[in-house]
Amino acid sequence: YAADHSRPVKVELNNLIVSAEGLKETTKGFCPANMAWRDVGPVQLKAGLNVLVLGLSAEFPSLRSIRFVPN
Q1: pTM reported for the whole predicted model
Q2: C-beta separation of 56 from 23 below 8 A
């Protein structure tokens, strides 16, 4: 993601809050050169359908992709 100012996002997975203020750090810009990976928190994916919800109260950061990394 990239953000020129703090744009916190509520991150939920399967109705559980992973982070109330994920992606709140600035990356000093919102262009592709400013994109950065950030850990939001550990999650448990279940077999079948998983629902990821990204919520916000104001502006949303520029988001290119999401990845899940196994432990």
Answers
A1: 0.83
A2: no
